[in-house]
Protein 1
Amino acid sequence: MTSDEGRWKEKPPPARAWKGRARTRQGRSAEQDRAAGSHELRYVDLGNGRRACASIDLKVYAKTRRIRAYIRWSDNGKSPAIYIGEVDRDTRAENLTVAWQAAKDKGLLATPPSSPVEASWASTPAVRQVMKGNKSRDTGPERRLRSAVHALGLRYRVARRPVAELRRTADLVFTKAKVAVFVDGCYWHGCPEAEHYRPSRKNSNFWHKKITTNQQRDQETNRLLCEAGWTVIRVWEHEDASTAAMHIAEVIREASSNQQMLPSQTQ
């Protein structure tokens, strides 16, 4: 796996060659997926039809000043590891890729199942895994907006139907003011700003149709809620949460004020 066994004789390898920067579990998993080729290519065979998702660990040993790669996974509370070999590339990404290829060459990886991917609408196993990991609620933009709105003293319900009999779920619902807030993902809802929405080049017809359908449903949702007396606010995921929260607060104040005037106007 190494091309120059003595390249780091005088000093330890640079941190960029082995040390990870991803701070979240999702980020670390994505890094391993890229190096392995896809999430489906990261599994080891445990026997009896069982598989486990594995990761590559890179460690530097002070005595040898070399980077050693291990493949590791979890199984019933244990974390077995197998030594793969030494790697000597300049970046962590390259070393992870080399180590995954070595694990494959050594026959340590399970054969990925073909049927789920073939039956899927995703163009590649990597795309399929991203779609599986896509959240329908409690996304980062949603949490940031909720925090900003809460800081303004506003209270709301999360992931509720504004109208019970209407199968439409808003991300934030202000019941008394009858204001429904939706946080729209730039890709899934077709953000009009080019830097936030880049059409897929693979399986483009499928994705164009899917996103167009989402946009049509959004328009229908707006219309149905407005007809039911609700005010609809849509916030793009790229928008500043504090600015969006201020706008929501203004709309709620105006909506509440209008509702207080209704009884006197009808007398």
Protein 2
Amino acid sequence: MIKESRQLKAQYDYYFLREYRFRYWLLVVDNHFFDQYYFFLEKQKLGTALLHSHELLAIPRDKALYEHVLADLHSFSALTIYYRNTHQLIHPTRDITNDPIHGHG
């Protein structure tokens, strides 16, 4: 296992607590703004909207390094992995069309 994979596994073991009534998943972000790949462990308590996100690793955007770290991640984790790309950003809320308090009207 390479240094980055060992670092990812150490962070994964630290944050993956296997808490009762929590849902866990992994998130991999291809961040074009900072030219890096980010690995996150996310968890959510069942029945709540509160989401906890823990950054596990950030590596340079090197495709070979990314594929190697991802293969090592699959070897020790069976969690679902979601992928995001900063070219397709998620818009979390509606656009503000009328806000008389702040002058948007």
Protein 3
Amino acid sequence: MHLGVFTDGFEAYSLEDMLETCERLGIGGVELGCANWSKAPHVPVDDLLSGKLAAADYLETFKRHHVQIDALNCSGNVLHPVEGAQHRAGVRKTLQIASMLGVKTVVATSGLPAGGSEDKRPNWVTTHWPPENYEILDYQWNQVAIPAWKEIAGEARRYGVRIAFELHPTCLVYNLDTFERLCEGVSDCKDVLGINMDPSHMMWMGGDGRELVRAVPASIFHVHLKDVVFHEGKRLVNGNLDYKRGADIDARSWSFDVPGKGRDGLWWSNFLETLKAAGYNGVLSVELEDYTGFPKNPLAEAVQFMKPLVAGYPD
């Protein structure tokens, strides 16, 4: 395993500056935002697709800094009742570019449909009540999500690329049960549909990413490194469901942060051991969502904390 970074945290920095930072910190790989919710700050999407920029010339920049491209990211909402077609096009472009660059993994979110055919906004169902929730779920899964992902899975297979779902709240696929439900509906797809294991989402939802890895070891295609800090004074009276903006740290029940800020070294060592036992030997991609606005400092903190732990699990 080796340390990497999801470079959307560096959207205000040039490709050269970002890669120089990675090289200086000893980061061996990057996950590049390519479409949809990402502004694709470091991927010249149109130039690559048109042939204006040759893939080999683009890759030369990374080789010069001794950094490899481990994954592309096109997280978005391909199931959105209004914006879905646009995001679907973003996924298609990302799969094409991944194939051109020899990148085998694309990180994505499942998306979230509306609650019915006439609705214009996505609807995330998280409880068994009221009863109409089951009507919503039937529509979302059977009429929207499964047909869409059958098509996308087939396309990914044709491009020789696999898709790693980030199990993200407010998406239809956000835990193991929902991942398995999608795979069952799409059928024979686990060669191309897997999981991006971001333990932070499991933390604040009350789960444990280590247990999920143990449950489906062959489905772990990619890993994000991100921690959660709980603010007990708020959490104990408000619970973990919190709509306040991420930057409003003092008002929230919890906040994202870099590894080591919420869980100690023992927890993260055990997380790495669990990944190793599952057969995972890929990138550990630091995702910067601490809202400081200074990506280089938090990334350096993450590397300082994780590097000694990762040293025991070399590629």
